[in-house]
Amino acid sequence: MSSEPTGPQSPPVTMEARTCWLLVLVLALVSSSSTGQYVGLSPNQCMVPAKDRVDCAYPNVTPEQCNNRGCCFDSSIPGVPWCFKPLQEAECTF
């Protein structure tokens, strides 16, 4: 008789594979939790008074499409652009 197991064996999981799957999971969670935020923009950059908004897109643009253009989206004020250019942040000089 042999002392070897007779059932199917799963290959050993390497540390690299575990790390890869963990990274995929973290990225998926981060991307799903960032919905509704301005990618690459600070919150202050989108605080543009309604009268100063400069249109940044086309009619019926979605918030996601607007954001992908690097612009801010706010549909809470009728009669002004909802997709508009962000404020430029001042650079610090020393």
Explain what this protein looks like in three dimensions:
With 94 residues, this protein is mainly alpha-helical. The protein has a domain at 43-84: Spasmolytic Protein, domain 1, CATH 4.10.110.10. It is built from 2 helices and 2 strands. Strands 1-2 form a two-stranded antiparallel sheet. The radius of gyration is 24 Å and the shape is elongated. Residues 20-36 have low confidence and may be disordered.
What is the CATH superfamily classification of the domain at 43-84?
Spasmolytic Protein, domain 1
Tell me, what is the CATH class of the domain at 43-84?
A: Few Secondary Structures
- Helix proportion range: 25-40%
Indicate the overall shape: elongated
Cα distance, first to last residue?
80 Å
Mean pLDDT: 74
Subcellular location: Cytoplasm; Secreted, Extracellular space, Extracellular matrix
Main location: cytoplasm
GO cellular component, one term: extracellular space
GO biological process, one term: maintenance of gastrointestinal epithelium
Topology:
Layout lengths: L14 H19 L29 H6 L3 E2 L9 E2 L10
Antiparallel strand pairs: 1-2
InterPro entries: P_trefoil_chordata, P_trefoil_CS, P_trefoil_dom, P_trefoil_dom_sf
Keywords: Cytoplasm, Disulfide bond, Extracellular matrix, Secreted, Signal
Pfam family, one: Trefoil
